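Sample 3 of the quickstart, ligand magnesium ion:
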Amino acid sequence: MVYDKNTKNLTRINKLNLTDFRNHSYSSITTDKDFILLTGLNGSGKTNVLEAISMFTASKGLRGSSLADQSNSNGRGGWSVFMEVHSELGNLKLGTGINKHDLIKGKARQCRVDGTSYKSPKIFTNYLGLIWLTPQMDGLFIGQRSDRRKFFDKLINLLETDHSENIKNYERLIMQRNKLLTRLDVLEDNWLDNLEKQIAKLATQIFISRDLAVNKINKIMEEEVRSNLFPSAKIVMREEIGNVNLDLDMEQIEENIKNLFFESRKKDKATYKANFGVHRTDFTLLYKKNNMFAENCSTGEQKNLLISLILAEARVFQNNNDNLPILLLDEITAHMDNKRLTNLFDQISDIGSQTWLTGTSPDFFAHIRNKTDIFDISNGKLI
Ligand SMILES: Nc1ncnc2c1ncn2[C@@H]1O[C@H](COP(=O)(O)OP(=O)(O)O)[C@@H](O)[C@H]1O
Ligand SMILES: [Mg+2]
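Result:
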């Protein structure tokens, strides 16, 4: 692939401050490097730093924790994370956090961009894309379908920016429909008709966004990336949306989905749930070499498939010259041979995404030493 380094839209976190976040009372990192490595013993607070960065997404961070759990147990109550980001949009100051008072009241966290407050962390996705891999995700393909769906939908949201919002609204309406179905004696109702109309509209958008994004990523994974040691794969969606034909125009798709919801009213009422819809879609990867779905591959192969996937996603941005996502790779060296690791770092360097890494020892990272800032952490402090 030919690219011009000057035209690439490199997004960089240049400064990161954690205040009372997890076991960090106050930690400040300044960097101008492509790779940032956090080292230290188990439990020193490395993943906590990645988690702090991951708060600059539309939903919960990489642990999916509550705001209260993130608040330093020896602190003053509440926490904040601040960062300076350099991108094609210029230099930006991003901040998020919650004070003690709001935490007790169960309020939402505050979100700031260059001093202006916003209601929702969705604002951050205008400025920054984040992709993370953690050791917990090693079991993604054999674990719960909903975790898998959330992970893939997050990747899709990076390419289709209203996707997560549509899903949130869709799920809210599905819950309203479930409640309404339990209450109704006769399954003919204007309110229900109206709800299903709105649900069908959102379902269509979700369906189409998934289709578009998955095709973009699959196209990259199909192309042979030169000297890529990670497996060639394909995202496969297992839809539970009945016989909806995507080749129709949008109104017709909506109409078909609406009819399917209408037809499943009786069953849905009896089972207290919506038996069909985009909230039931499952995602997996097909390992092309041996025509095997990810859930049947070895643990090591599953991890490599995940890496193939995130590299492909980042390459979509690289090819479009869009603001590159930042990668957070937690303990990525575990169970990975040196040759693959070197190849992973070479590919990331080629793409140009700034990458935050954790590891117990800097030894595995010798290959990227001159592009890396290393921060040693002990007991929630940089040393
Ligand atoms: N809210 C909190 N307040 C203080 N310490 C916390 C909080 N949440 C987690 N911790 C501590 O953070 C440490 C784990 O940090 P982590 O970043 O996961 O370590 P590692 O360096 O192994 O990645 C544990 O010692 C845990 O007790
Ligand atoms: Mg860790």
